[in-house]
Design goal:
By secondary structure, the protein is mainly α. It has 7 helices and no strands.
Length: 157
């Protein structure tokens, strides 16, 4: 069944969807990076390797998030229901906004909902948190692949 979901990538509708999701996630990840620290400041502070690592991670995470959205859409087409793992890409973006965002914004946001805590500077321009976001996306892929393979079809057999 998972192979059928990947075969849907040959259809123009799904290819367009994949490109649009990829571009949207890439834009979001680059905006979040910029709000945290510009690439020029990051290069001056941490070196070129960290800048390249962040850009590569943005591309990988955008591609995986777009693929996760495709698999979720394909699952709806194949099984008539959405998988529970479909939101992992979004959760990853939300996690990124809350951790890569400017510290004062995040503190103000959490304070407005009654959460008070002490925030320290994010190490390596938030790279560990970006890696955690990548882990969330990978978990989402594993989860939805399992749902597609093991789940029930909308047509009784």
């Amino acid at each position: 069944m998972l192979s059928l979901a990947y075969l849907k990538l040959k259809e123009r509708k799904y290819q367009l969807q994949l490109v649009l999701f990829f571009a949207l996630f890439l834009l979001i990840y680059f905006i979040v990076d910029y709000l945290n620290m510009s690439y020029l400041a990051m290069r001056q502070t941490y070196g070129l390797f960290l800048v390249v690592t962040n850009i590569v991670l943005n591309i990988v995470m955008s591609g995986l998030s777009a693929l996760l959205m495709h698999l979720s859409t394909a699952m709806v087409a194949l099984k008539g229901r959405e998988g529970k793992a479909a939101n992992f890409g979004f959760i990853s973006v939300l996690f990124g906004i809350l951790t890569y965002g400017c510290t004062t914004c995040v503190i103000a946001f959490f304070a407005s909902v009654g959460i008070a805590f002490s925030v320290i500077a994010l190490p390596f321009a938030g790279l560990p948190y970006k890696l955690l976001s990548l882990l969330l996306i990978v978990i989402g892929h594993l989860w939805i692949a399992r749902e597609i393979e093991k789940g029930t079809c909308k047509i009784p057999q």
